[in-house]
Structure formats: C-alpha cells, structure tokens
Design goal:
Elements (H helix, E strand, L loop, with lengths): L14 H9 L2 H8 L8 H8 L3 H13 L3 E6 L2 E6 L2 H5 L9 H19 L27 H6 L4 E5 L1 H8 L9 E6 H9 L3 E4 L1 H13 L3 E4 L7 E5 L3
Antiparallel strand pairs: 1-2, 3-4, 3-5, 4-7, 6-7
C-alpha cells in the first residue's frame, strides 16, 4: 500500500497497524497483497495465486463492498483492483466510519501520512474559482470545474469523508457535507455500494455554486480526466 498514491508510511506508535486491523481481516490483507492496481477478474486472481475460485470471488466482492478494493463491471464480467489508502479505501469508508476509526485515522494522519505527502505527487490539484480570474487569462477546460462537470456523462454526489470523520470527533467546520463529486466507473462504484446518489449536470452545477458560496476549495483528481472532484474546507 505504501507504493500507491501518497503512500502509507509506518507510524512509530503503531497506529498504522491499528488502522489496517480496523479495515481488514488477516485473510483479506493477504489477498490485497496479491493484487495490483491493474483490474483483474476473480478467475485470473484465483489462477495466479492458487486460490479457490468461489472463495476468492466472494472475498473480493465483500472487500469491494467494504471499500477495500475497487470494482468495475464490464458487460457480464466483474473486475477488481487494489486501491491506495488515500485517495481510496479511506474515502470509501463513508458507511463504516465510526468514532474509533475516525480517531485512529486522525492520529495516523498527524503522525505519519501528512509528513510524507510533501514527498509525493499530490493526488488532488487546486483549480481557481472562475469568476475570480482575470478574463484575459485562458483557463484550460480541464482546469475549469464547470467544464469538468459538463464533460461527464455520469455524475454522483457523496458526503465528504474528511468532514464526516471530523464530525465524529466533534470538530465540525459547519461547511456543506454533500460536496464530493465522482464520475464514470468511480460513480458506478459509489452508487453500487450506496455511498452516493446519482445527479444530473444541472444539480451538479448548482452544488458547485453552493460550494463556492461557502468558500470551499475545488480540487479534482490530479489528472486531465479526473474520476472525482473534492470541495475542501480551509482546515
């Protein structure tokens, strides 16, 4: 997991292992280590790792439902892949987040993860609020939040996992909660796992307006064709 995204560095206190034990069983952790971020069918995983097919398929589906691996459906087939902790399994804990996990994550972020993030390519990029820019400046379509939303055929909206976690620790900033956009196959994953609701572009743009009015910072995934877009608060 430490090889993915912003990594998963060791914490001297051992809170990193407490986070993992809260998320995974030992058997699930072993299976995760045999996966990569390349999508793969249960049949392929079982053949490659000498595991029983039915047990492997059942475990992968359970892990997908619990936000521990990514799942993508293509016609009648289903594929799974390993995911980073951030952006990945942490964000997928909307339904499983409780006060204990919120506290563990808070300790882990402060002790280890935030210290490491400056050494990696950031998973999100900040793009400006359009009406705050001099109109003489040219903003590329992939750096314009509205153009990103208009380019997406499938949009789902979810609660912000960070504010969900902080509310459990009684550190709420009071900013809007349902502000996390997910697109395409990422939207499919959120919808199938009941982590988000499907919206149209009109509602998406209206939510974006509310985010800007609330002073939230728009941050899509750090790629030209992002699978998601956050709206972050100052803290």
């Amino acid at each position: 997991m430490d090889h993915y995204s912003v990594g998963f560095p060791k914490a001297e206190s051992g809170v990193d292992l407490k986070v993992l034990k809260k998320l995974y069983t030992e058997e699930e952790a072993a299976l995760f280590l045999d996966l990569s971020m390349q999508l793969e069918s249960p049949d392929s995983v079982s053949n490659r790792t000498n595991r029983d097919l039915k047990k492997t398929a059942d475990m992968l589906e359970t892990m997908a439902k619990n936000g521990l691996v990514f799942r993508k459906r293509r016609e009648d087939a289903v594929y799974y892949a390993a995911i980073p902790f951030v952006i990945g399994s942490f964000e997928f804990q909307l339904k499983r987040m409780d006060k204990e996990f919120a506290q563990l994550v808070d300790e882990y972020f402060t002790e280890a993860l935030f210290e490491n993030m400056g050494e990696t390519i950031p998973p999100l990029r900040t793009i400006p609020v359009k009406h705050s820019i001099d109109v003489a400046q040219k903003v590329a379509p992939y750096s314009d939040a509205r153009e990103i939303l208009k380019s997406k055929d499938k949009i789902a909206i979810a609660n912000c996992i960070c504010r969900t976690q902080q509310e459990l620790l009684e550190n709420s900033c009071g900013k809007p909660l349902e502000v996390c956009f997910v697109f395409g196959s990422h939207a499919d994953y959120y919808l199938e796992n009941d982590l988000a609701r499907l919206i149209d572009q009109e509602e998406a743009l209206a939510i974006l307006d509310k985010c800007e009015e609330a002073g939230l910072v728009n941050q899509p995934a750090n790629m030209i064709n992002p699978g998601g877009m956050c709206n972050c608060c100052g803290d």
